[in-house]
Amino acid sequence: MTDASANPLLAPSTLPYGLPDYREIAPQHYLPAFEEAFAQHRAEIAAITAQTEPASFENTMIPLERSGDLLGSVARTFYTVSSADATPEIQEIDETLAPLMSAHRDAITLDAALYARIADLHAQLDDLDLDAESRYLVERHYREMTHAGAALDDDAKSRLTDLNGRLATLSNTFEKHLLADTNDLAVVFDTAEELDGLDEGALSAATQAAADRGLEGKYAVTLTLFTGHPYLARLTDRASRARLLEASRSRGVRGGANDNRVIVREIVRLRAERAALLGYDSHAAYITSDETTGTPEAVHAMLRQLAAPAAANARREQAALQQIIDETAADTGTEPFTLEARDWAYYTEKVRTATYDIDTAALRPWFEAERVLQDGVFWAATQLYGVTFTERPDLPAYHPDARVFEVKDADGSPLGLFILDLYTRDTKRGGAWMNSIVLQSRLRGTSPVVVNNLNVPKPAAGKPTLLTLDEVTTLFHEFGHALHGLFAVTTYPHFSGTAVFRDFVEFPSQVNEMWIMWPEVLAHYARHVETGEPLPQDVVDRLHASETFNQGFATSEYLAAAWLDQAWHSLDASAAAAVDDVAAFEASALADIGLDNPVVPTRYSSTYFAHVFSGGYSAGYYSYIWSEVLDADTVEWFTENGGLTRANGDRFRERLLGVGGSKDPLEAYRDFRGRDAEIAPLLKRRGLEG
Fold this sequence. Notes:
Layout: H1 30-49, H2 57-66, H3 69-84, H4 88-109, H5 112-123, H6 132-148, H7 154-184, E1 187-189, H8 200-212, E2 219-221, H9 238-249, H10 261-277, H11 283-288, H12 296-332, H13 341-356, H14 369-385, E3 388-391, E4 402-408, E5 414-423, E6 433-438, E7 449-456, H15 469-487, H16 506-512, H17 519-525, H18 537-545, H19 551-569, H20 573-578, H21 582-593, H22 610-613, H23 623-640, H24 646-655, H25 665-673, H26 680-685
Parallel strand pairs: 5-7
Antiparallel strand pairs: 1-2, 3-4, 4-5, 6-7
């Protein structure tokens, strides 16, 4: 037994909202705390299954929902750090922990006695006097345990546990390799001339990144998770663009310690074997069977429906870019060249400027990060939902860059905490995400603590952080997840916050993006960092006019990644075992759907596709476009009903965000919208009509 007095993770936090006191937590506290939490959780489950009385909701479901409280607390505390500040010591703990967590989850999920009690309750569900959330709790636990393999015989369960443990280790290794390779491949430039086109803020960030690596006087450009680095749109030197794109696409394929190709193949093979063990033709069939889509065929049909017009639009865009290159060469007397992937973003900006008179890089002074946060993201939430945000510098986060805000409801009552961790660093994984440290639950009497992580380059001290429009979009998007986590009010922790189907979870975050360009919101936050002048209305008008611009490229690069995910995970066990060349498999898959244009690379190649191989989106990356159908339909509803009003916000909060996972998501959508979603608004948004 671990001494709780010597381990801050084993005692309740004394801070508001149960925020862990990270000042007191050291790496050596984590593994002993996990060991104690595993033992406590097993004892809690044993107490449920040892009962001789027939199963009832009160003696089975209630203690089940109360169980694992300590483990959940320790795990959320640790995984917040392991994703956002993964020092070598934390990475070592994560590696040790991966198979232990997998084995523990299986011990609970595959427990035959627990499953029997829940199955008994499920069989008599119509005879039980339960409210809607309690009834759904029984349905979901029964479905999830069955889906996980609880009905298998002992030999099959043993093999399943082995597979799950190995997959957990492989996913952890994939992420470790990717982080290391991303850091190793940061592109170092000797002179500012090589970075011509970047503004002062970007150069400041590159100078700081080089200094952090001990390279004083040089410039280091760190990589983003996705293929197309934002700086490709601004760098005038083709060689510099080539170096940056090549570094991005080289992650995990260079051989050596951080090569992810063998990891990808083994993950795919083992997932296919596990799916077969569970009675499914493929991992994609297994995953989608418990999502709103239902089958991989439904996913494939949607992706194919969108791919052909997206690819055609991209080819038209490509021709326009080539024309700009040829005309520029004729005007300057230089040698023309054929457009390559490294050139797309740069010449897209030239076409955007020529067609719409918009230079997106020149917009950054209007998107100063603090103003975007306070007067944009927070202000829009206040107008819609009445909530307010007060920074709490007295409360410790897990890293000095992470800021804590207290959130209060319209009546002044405490709602929860929001933590923002804006900047990139070598110990943070790529991309952007939301996670919870504390879950809301009426049963446990807890309020939510949620985190948003981004990877914005940090300028030198004293310099303002100026965001790109894409980074503004990411900030609003991730905050939509945060609102979902803050607003869900459920009795049972199983349904807390964003605990919804994977192909529904992106919907609220995508909806929150609508406020970026909403007139009242934009006018409130988009003000010049030096003069305070608002973004000129003629620029706003041109931004709206260009909304479908470059959507062929944007849609194609996304669909290509979504199709790669489906292609890998639609393989049966024998086909998965036969794949021996990752690059060849990718090429064949993209050709199959007509998205093999070399000038439009996939948003993620397999070896750095963290969503799929180290995150929770395996066979589910389609979720973004699937959710966008709901999102575009919802934007249409807000537009038709007066936009940014408390009445609209309250309806959306009450009927969608507020229910968390306690209701079938499509039923919740129908309750909000009055009907099922229609695809027409999405097709219009992405320029795919006809």
